[in-house]
Amino acid sequence: MVAHARRDHPDEACGIIAGPAGSDSPERLVEMINAERSPTFYRFDSAEQLAVWRWMDDHDEEPVVIYHSHTATEAYPSRTDVKFASEPNAHYVLISTREPETAMVRSFRIVDGEITEEPVELTGDELAVQTYKIGHTPTSIVYDCAEPR
Amino acid sequence: MSVEVRIPTILRTHTGGEKIVKGDGDTLSALFADLDTRHNGLSGRVITGEGALHRFVNVYVNDEDVRFTGGLDTALNDGDSVTILPAVAGG
User: Which InterPro entries match (chain B) (predicted)?
Assistant: First the structure.
């Protein structure tokens, strides 16, 4: 996620991590096209979204994580992020590439317009992410930062 | 004449949790009018008060985004599959 966000900077990068439906386990990273190619907005390409969503449906997967980058602001959901959040089961992960040396990664639930931050626990190559927010909600989600398989 | 409609998670409150529902109609707007008779409120989540598609809801007939095939006037044939997907977008 961080590498993708860095690569597309100064435009926003976006994608998902799919996993088995109901597992809450993010396993398969899918980098999506930002159809807006914008530093302030993102939107999945509609044809690509259909293809990816259909593939998940056929393989009993769901988007466990939906991520995008903020390239000039902090890793916190914007008003537009909240307005368009449409997957109540997903973890919305924000990556800020504002600082060239330090990426910030934070994770949220966005349900019915309400933002709830959740803890991020790092495994694998911890140097891949330099700062992250420790949350205090009971469930934690684990991000494996090892090289993509 | 029957069309299969795939409902995204967030709109399943209108279909009693059903992931796939059946509908009828020669065009997409006729289909949504038909669906609304059984799935109250579904149409309003896809079509605006002015009768246009919501900008941040994608509707596909088979594999085609209907924005490129005539929008709500898109013709439907027996056995077509309609998919509704909220756009994944933000700032």
Answer: Beta-grasp_dom_sf, Mopterin_synth/thiamin_S_b, Sulfur_Carrier/Prot_Modifier, ThiS/MoaD-like
Give yes or no for residue B28 having a pLDDT over 70: yes
CB contact under 8 A, A41 and B86: no
Compare CB distances from B56 to A16, A84, A87 and report the shortest one's residue. A84
Structural domains of chain A, count: 1
Query: Could you tell me the pLDDT band of residue A120, with boundaries at 50, 70 and 90?
Result: confident
Phi, psi for B60 (deg, rounded to 5): -120, 140
A94, pLDDT greater than 80: yes
Domain boundaries, chain B: 3-86
**CATH, range B3-86:** 3.10.20.30
